[in-house]
Amino acid sequence: MISISALKALLATPQKIVITTHHKPDGDAMGSSLGLYAYLIQKGHHVSVITPTDYPDFLHWLPNNSNVIVYTEAEDRSIALVNEAALIFCLDFNTLSRINELGEHIRKADGFKLMIDHHLDPEDFDDYRHWSINACAAAQLVYDFIKNELNDEQFINKDVATCLYTGIMTDSGSFRFPSATSAVYRIAANLIDLGAEHWRIHQLVYDNASENRLRFLGHCLSNNLEILRDFNAAIITVTAQDLKNYDIATGDTEGIVNYALSINGIKLAAFIIERSDKVKLSLRSTGDFPANEICKKYFNGGGHRNAAGGASDDDLATTIAKFKSILPEYKSQLLQ
């Protein structure tokens, strides 16, 4: 492991740096990555942000987004940058399988690997770790890393603040999840003071839907929502044909699971979607119910207690049946 003093010494002179984040990046993944990028370029470093896959259009407005490299669209260039990097920052993930094929290239690379993350059970691939499961977002930890580890708060300019606020806002459910502590609100207030236009960020992220996305949402709620009152649970299912019918783009399904969770009395919501390679699951829960336990135990996934994801190699119908068969095991928790 590299010490913070050794890391500071490295960052004192210009370095070749790669920043990467998880597959299908969300607001926290891109906010934390581009926030760190905006900080590092002020220090004179040569920085590349590489995402394993594409990501939603509603995040493309973020400062410096035009400089992002998508691995699946530029594999050779991405691999070359990883191999040349002295430092590789891994944000909002803690196991290399979360970045698909890019993971093995990073594992083999000579550069120091630095993890900034808030998920459970980190894999031991990193040389430096700024990690806490109590953080509401990776962006919160990037803020803490810059301000308190590197003592560089003066470099949190408007671009940095905008990106980090976006990450915190999205991963805290617009500050409504239990992880949005008073400390998080104080950080958000400081980011606003430093230039983050909170009203504009919220509008660009949440009030920027396509017509197809809204019609698709209506279809999901009218036709694909199933309430399981015996378990205080709800399921929204989506077929591959649904995705084709509504010309669904990356990011269009994000957040739909929360509509199921918003139903009065529902404690566990599942969004189960048929993709080309696997069936993907997104679970949300309230209170102490461990959505992450179900994903880890039964669907090769994990995440946070109230927000987790997984996948299944079975077909859609079999996956739905499997999910329903698990619920009796948790009935007492779901009904309490």
List the defining traits of the structure above.
14 helices, 6-stranded parallel beta sheet, alpha/beta, inorganic pyrophosphatase (n-terminal core), 18% strand, 2 domains, Diaminopimelate Epimerase, Chain A, domain 1, 336 residues
List the helices and strands and how they pair.
Blueprint lengths: L3 H8 L4 E6 L5 H16 L3 E6 L17 E2 L4 H10 L2 E5 L10 H7 L3 E6 L10 E4 L6 H12 L8 H14 L10 H12 L4 H9 L4 H13 L1 E4 L4 E6 L1 H6 L11 H5 L6 E7 L4 E7 L5 H8 L3 E2 L3 E6 L3 H11 L4 H5 L1
Descriptive notes:
This protein has 336 residues and is α/β, with parallel strands linked by helices. β7 (225-228) and β8 form a beta hairpin. The protein has 2 domains: 4-206, Alpha-Beta Complex (inorganic pyrophosphatase (n-terminal core)); 211-335, Diaminopimelate Epimerase, Chain A, domain 1. The radius of gyration is 20 Å and the shape is globular. The protein is built from 14 helices and 12 strands. It has helices spanning 4-11, 27-42, 75-84, 102-108, 138-149, 158-171, 182-193, 198-206, 211-223, 240-245, 257-261, 291-298, 316-326, 331-335; strands at residues 16-21, 46-51, 69-70, 87-91, 112-117, 128-131, 225-228, 233-238, 268-274, 279-285, 302-303, 307-312. The N and C termini lie far apart (44 Å). It has a 6-stranded parallel β-sheet, sandwiched between helices.
Using only C-alpha atoms, the radius of gyration works out to 20 Å
| Count of strand segments | 12
Structural class: alpha/beta
Q: Helicity range of the residues? A: 40-55%
CATH class of the largest domain: Alpha Beta
Task: Strand order, main sheet: write it out.
Answer: 3-2-1-4-5-6
Could you say how many structural domains there are in total? Answer: 2
